[in-house]
Specification:
This protein is an alpha+beta fold and 76 residues long. The protein has a single domain, classed as 2-Layer Sandwich (Translation Initiation Factor IF3). 30% of the residues lie in helices and 33% in strands. It contains two helices and four strands. The chain has a four-stranded mixed sheet with strand order 1-2-4-3, covered by helices on one side. Strand 3 (58-65) and strand 4 form a beta hairpin. The longest helix has 12 residues, at 44-55. The two termini are 20 Å apart.
Length: 76
């Protein structure tokens, strides 16, 4: 499992809030740092992948833990 610099919990939030919060959190990180995002909205599966491609950030991991979706994004 990849280490991370900061964790963002977007549990209970629906699209587009998890992506908007992720974008805001990544602004506070330095290039190369890793943001762990926890979400419960199934829509984030496609959204995180598209978000990473569009913004030049790397989606290092996408997994599930119970009802949660876990993502690790590395700031580009």
């Amino acid at each position: 499992m990849t280490e991370f610099t900061r964790e963002l919990d977007t549990s209970g939030l629906n699209c587009p809030m998890p992506i908007l919060r992720t974008k805001k959190a990544l602004k506070d990180l330095q290039s190369g740092e890793i943001l762990k995002v926890v979400a419960t909205d199934p829509g984030t599966v496609k959204d995180m992948e598209a978000f990473a491609k569009q913004t030049g950030n790397a989606l290092l991991e996408a997994s599930t833990e119970g009802d949660s979706f876990i993502y690790r994004l590395q700031k580009g």
